[in-house]
Amino acid sequence: MRSSDDRTTAARIRDAAITEFAARGVAGTSIRTIAATAGVSPGLVIHHFGSKEDLRVACDEHVAGIIRDVKGGAMASGGGFDVTAAFRAVGEIPAAKYLARTLVDGSPHVAELVDEIVRDAVGYVATGVETGMIKPTEHEWGRAAILTIWSLGALVLHEHLERLIGVDITADFSQDPTATTAYMAPALEIFSQGVFTETTVQLMREAFVSQRSAQEKESV
Amino acid sequence: MRSSDDRTTAARIRDAAITEFAARGVAGTSIRTIAATAGVSPGLVIHHFGSKEDLRVACDEHVAGIIRDVKGGAMASGGGFDVTAAFRAVGEIPAAKYLARTLVDGSPHVAELVDEIVRDAVGYVATGVETGMIKPTEHEWGRAAILTIWSLGALVLHEHLERLIGVDITADFSQDPTATTAYMAPALEIFSQGVFTETTVQLMREAFVSQRSAQEKESV
DNA sequence: CAATACATTAAACGATCGTTCAAGATCGAC
DNA sequence: GTCGATCTTGAACGATCGTTTAATGTATTG
Q1: Domains of chain B, first to last
Q2: pTM for the whole thing?
Q3: Which of A85, A187, B21, B151 has its CB 3.0 to 4.6 Å from that of A79, i.e. a possible disulfide?
């Protein structure tokens, strides 16, 4: 039975930490809990990683590595800026949940990683525009950033999304057509035809301009 | 000087707790920290709220109350399903940040609250469709849910959004036209014209159908 | 086989945690 | 002005936290 888990003890501890940190946050997880999940003593956790903070950094770096692998591998065949799709494709569910938590908890490396994902999205979108798949825009960076944030935001709020539409985007639902429809269909619709009518766009543009000129008056 | 703060001591403790919980999470915040922020002794916190968990519930309910007020007041004049706009309009920044944290930490009341926001969004969108402001859809619930999740997701990831495009959506930037442009312009663009071209939509639809029929074959 | 390095554990340490408690301080009611 | 109720504090309690330490087990190596 042991042959079914060929990971190092240190790797098992690290993976247990990733799971626990993802579920309860770093502050909400004790070393004793991680040790219990990994089936070792608390002292061994410290022996292998030095301290809780160092263990957290090790988790950070490991998940960051997975993300970079996933991006390199499944990017071209997938949805581009939809990071969550890449995770599902590779089956790295704990890493996805860890990222979701860490995006809010904050960590030494996650900000850097998000910037990286957005830069990739900019490149992906630019290619899409060149090949006529994606509409051009004045706000290249802003649009890529917002699309990425929305995608990551859905990942972070996966529990709510699951409750709302019955789809866990941190799980592999590629075999479940119902789930695919519930999540992908409305998103695809928004991304293709938008939600506002021409009338609304015109109204908002006018309101925006008038607000702006009013502020210019104020500031004089 | 004391006249500048007419809140009850209990209210000051509660507000301090909301701020600290929002910044560091519930597990990452000690009662002693809250007491220090409120300028009282740790014992007094317990005396007024019974326990840390009860204090958390009190924060939950207070913020939920603020959100319901905000929804009722600024909904009609604002962006509809953009919850964050409502917070800025009323100036309840700590409540917004508390909600952002609690959406991920989980709490006894937040799920209920999210469902409520989505139901409101469905109603708002339906009205918009009737008056010709919003495009109709097959997926009423799904679209409203996803739009709400995106909006809340941006709130949750406000720190990353600020770093990426220089706009803190938990702050009142109504006086800052640059910030308004950076965030609102791309979002409005996506919501009006979409991001995918007709070619892409057609391709995705075909891919979706073929995937589906392949799965139907499989399941036979 | 002896020696050495590494893996691992149980026990304990000091710090901090949420909470309790006893004792003042403050206040309104009679 | 006295009394009871409420507000507030400082000290302390037991539990749990991250971490250390000493000891034992288990390989590896010459």
Answers
A1: 4-175 (1.10.357.10)
A2: 0.89
A3: A85
